[in-house]
Design brief:
446 residues; alpha+beta; 10 helices
Length: 446
Amino acid sequence: MKSFIINSFTVISICHTFHIQAQNIQKEQLPSVWNLEQCISYSKENNIQINTLRLTEKSTEQDLLQAKAAKFPSLSGSASQSYTNAKNADLVVGGFQTQATFAGNYSLGSSVTLYNGGYLNNDVKQKKLLIETAKYNAQAAENEIALQITQAYLTVLLTKENSTYLSEIATTSEAQLKLGELKYNAGSIAKKDLVQLKAQLATDNYNLINSQNSEKQNTLTLKQLLQLPSGYNLVIQKPDTLITILPVVALAEAQKIALEQRPEVKSSQLATESAALDLQKSKAGFQPTLSASGTLASGYSDNQQIAYATQLDNNFYQRLGLSLSIPIFNNRIAKTNVEKSKIAIDQSKLNLTNTETILSQQVEQAYISALNAQSQYSAAKEQMDANKENYRIANEQLRLGGISTVDYLLQKNLYVQAFQNFIQAKFNAVVSLKIYDFYKGEPIKL
């Protein structure tokens, strides 16, 4: 028992070591700094949901191969060997005699469906459509994760820029506090002014810590979207420039492009075609089925005096046959299948209409968001520029003693609020443009 426990712990330790080594190998293969294009590309290759949909596509490909194979003849072989021990009446000796017999039978059989109302042909067509549908479903999942990663990536950039800005504000407040201490010691300002400067520095440090924590949390969100290994330190690259103002394509044109190109629409369209083929398959239940079959067989038994090879030759026979099955009454199974297929067609059309409606609404929302974000960005920039200049003047006035601490802090808070509004507006403008362009089929890149 002791030996078994030691070996078990050894196995667990070895497995744990291999797991750590596998994670380390995977980490070594990852880039040290990520840009947005790398994040999206990595997710498309490694995302579990997307790869699951790709496996669904592979499974559907196997269904297609099986549907095609159903049109060809089948071939099966059988062999049986038997031993019989029995008592037989012996009239010569007036009793029973025990007799053992060995016998064998061998056969090859084949069958093929000649006609079944077009079921097999329609089944092949339907499986081809299902493969295309699976591909579009995977592409739709790729698009969805690309949008999520773009939003998460830009959110990290937003919090990083905000942290940098708040750090500069805290540094300025620290310098103002040191100057205030000198003035207080010299009797130039009251103690309440010094206390207000200390309180402002504490507030600025608090805001900086909150922003840094938000940056860590947003980075973790992006890391989880990428499904990166635990413990991996994700570092993203800040682009040189972020385009915030661009001409916005007319809504009608963007909706037209989206409805023609987006994979979720194509998937719904194929679902409608697949439902129509399913109806044709259901109607085949009313049609006769014609099949052909053939058999080659032979056998032998050792209770005959004829040689084994001769017996096989003598017993060898061939059989060809045609089988016609005509449905007359099948408890309404075929009728029910047809009616359900018709309902499925109507449902698929509703699903297509719903998909197109939702997509048109999403494009319209992205269009309005892009216009609003650009307007907000322009207004926020003007507000920030004005408050930045006022804050610069207030800093100089405070240094020279030409403004009270209360007035200075009021102007500073206005500038802080204006700058944060500007950062938020800038990244909203970038995200809105990227999402709107993405609906038009343009790849996401910074």
